[in-house]
Amino acid sequence: MADIRYGIIGCGNIARAHMWAIKNGNGITCAGITDRIPEHAKLLNEEFGGGFRIFDSAEDMVNSPDIDAVILAVPNYQHQPMFELAAAHGKHILCEKPLTMTVEQGEHMVETAHKYGVKTQMGLCTRFEPYVDAMMDHIQAGNLGDIYFARTDVLRMRGTPTGWFGNKEKSGGGPLIDIGVHFIDACWYLMGKPKPVRVKALNYAAIANKYPKGVDIYSSFEKDTVYNVEDSSHGIITFENGAGLMYQAAWAINSESVDERLELYGTKGGLIKMPCTLIREEVSGMTTTSIQAKDDDCYKLQLEDFARVIKGEKESRTPVEDGLAVQKMLNGLYRSAREGREVDI
Fold it and tell me: For 246-295, what is each residue's pLDDT tens digit?
């Protein structure tokens, strides 16, 4: 079959990750880009060698017969309107994480996808990392037994993005909804996606100087000077089966940076993601086994995977319904932090 033709809505930083993914991928192509600010689309086009079709608007793109699916690479507050616009025009949708801002918006997005019969995939690309696949192989082989707890941390000593990320009205929150979401989702996915029932979170905005000397700054294309979100979030999610997930996520914290820590604890064994290690009790005693996997770009892998979904070859690994389930956890954690107590979700 022909390549799946993606259109990218939004030409900021994350669009560049998708452009590289398409450039290096198989069975996929970029058939157009668009941004509310035309200069952003022109700059993206130039950075990748030119020749890409620049649509005047998202409306023009979703009306084009030359687009099979769209990638929503826009700020969080634009996810719902862009999602529903694309679905109403029969375009399949890869929506960057998080799904949206609120559970109510997410429920409407799921209903809209079902109404128009479009296929969906969430931009939860950590699920597609080869080491996550390798971990899942061991889980499905029964090497962990029953997974009863998971721990994940993603901590930046200093790494607060500028622009809309810090404005709660546009982002929905800080590092929890921005970077924590990837690893919370990966843990939940590896645990078998148990039903979350209760959450407890502590959020802090405690760091005065977010940009000290020598710090690389992730600059958003959409400028904004409002900062009213957390610097760090720490909490636990309890599932219906009694399992738990403990997380930490920070843009700014007085600690060593942790790019990612993801650990799973089971009745027969445990897994650590990086370096990928299986821990088990064998006849000779406790053992640690190094797990090897060929590293690859998870953005490329998710776009190639979604192309197969669109062609009807498989089901989506990260459907919009999973995005909604994660949204419920995120919004529950923010509510818990606001109210200072554990809450049911």
Answer: 999 999 999 999 999 999 999 999 999 999 999 999 998 999 999 999 99
Domain 4-125+299-317 coded CATH 3.30.930.10 = no
Paired tokens of 74 = 């826009």
- What residue ranges of the chain have pLDDT lower than 70? 1
Which strands form 120-123's sheet, in the order they lie side by side?
28-34, 4-9, 69-72, 92-96, 120-123
| Class of the CATH domain delimited by 127-296+327-344 | alpha beta
Instruction: Give backbone dihedrals phi and psi of 153, rounded to 5 degrees, phi first.
Output: -135, 140
Distance CA 58, CA 45 (A): 16
DSSP 222-246: S------S-SEEEEEEEETTS-EEE
Closest listed residue to residue 108, CA positions, set 122, 87, 90 = 87
* Phi–psi pair at 13, nearest 5 degrees: -65, -45
